[in-house]
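User: Structure tokens for this complex, please. No commentary.
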Amino acid sequence: DGGITQSPKYLFRKEGQNVTLSCEQNLNHDAMYWYRQDPGQGLRLIYYSQIVNDFQKGDIAEGYSVSREKKESFPLTVTSAQKNPTAFYLCASSIRALGEQYFGPGTRLTVT
Amino acid sequence: GENVEQHPSTLSVQEGDSAVIKCTYSDSASNYFPWYKQELGKRPQLIIDIRSNVGEKKDQRIAVTLNKTAKHFSLHITETQPEDSAVYFCAASSPTDDKVIFGPGTSLSVIP
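Assistant:
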């Protein structure tokens, strides 16, 4: 379980505010991912990064932004443009693409 | 892009019976197919994976089969135990874009 952390565990925001979710890993993994988990919809890919200073959009990137300035960090910003931001957000990392992903404990975001 | 379907969405079995979960994918270039288990309140964890150069892989009570021609793969759990109760996700990944696309999940209940 150790090696990849997300903070905070619970986050509450008012509508119209941007919010940044933290994801840190000390596994020396090159690849990092952000997923959104909603009941009955599995894990949907928001953004992913194979290497520092590079990242690609996933299937539901609209209303989100990321940065990858350091290998161990991949923060996700949920902007006010995201129409339905309340969800459970999972970060993951892997040694390389197409390999086992290690997930963080998740952040549950509630926007009212 | 890749699309992964998964059936059934819920599955109940008696302890000791077998459970089978089936997935289909759309991108013929996909060559990596992991399965993750998510227990209630916990993060997803890899339980088994298969690459396109093999048709079957086994690990104790868990096995995965892959039919590349038909673009489907299945998870088989034998001699189910109550601790197998969880949500199971299949996924597919293509070297074309290195994205890992998950299915919607199957909630497995093993009845003692």
